[in-house]
Amino acid sequence: MPYDDYEVLLNTLEELSDIHDYQVAMNSDTESVPATLVDRLLKGDNPLKVWREHRNLTQQKIAQAADISIPFLCQLETGKRQPYLKTYQKLAKILQVSIDDLIQEEDK
After folding, report:
1. Residue 78: phi, psi to the nearest 5?
2. Exposed / middle / buried, residue 105 (Cβ in 10 Å: 0-12, 13-18, 19+)
3. Which of 14, 17, 36, 75 is placed for a possible disulfide with 81 were both Cys, Cβ 3.0 to 4.6 Å?
4. Hey, what's the torsion of the CAs at 77, 80, 84, 85, to 10 degrees?
């Protein structure tokens, strides 16, 4: 096989692989998140606050649903306190994320 033909086949294979990956991603049940959310998390903003705001939920709604006080939620969002595992589980369920998504790097 001539080298030029080999390169054409290789490029075609790469394009087909890209198309396949795109189709898998589009049919995935995983949530897409905006770059601004990712940027805030990478910048070090509190994940609990970032996800709460992304979901357009008030502190009052989150606190009520998680059966915690608003002042305690404020302390969690400012990093002054850390919740127990059970509270992390409630918050993660309310925000539709994993517990890992709520833990800041320095907390891990």
Report:
1. -95, -5
2. exposed
3. 75
4. 50
CB proximity list for 85: less than 8 A, separation 6 or greater:
99
Tokens, residue 73: 């939620």
CA dihedral 11, 29, 94, 101 (to 10 degrees): -30
Q: 40 near 77, Cβ under 8 Å?
A: no
User: Residues 22, 39: one domain?
Assistant: no
Q: 76 with 101, same domain?
A: yes
Instruction: Tell whether 53 and 77 lie within a shared domain.
Output: yes
Q: pLDDT at position 22, please?
A: 81
| Rounded Cα gap, residues 93 and 65, in angstroms | 10
Per-residue model confidence (pLDDT) at position 107: 54
For residue 97, give both structure tokens: 């994320």
Task: Give the pLDDT band of residue 72 (cuts 50, 70, 90).
Answer: very high
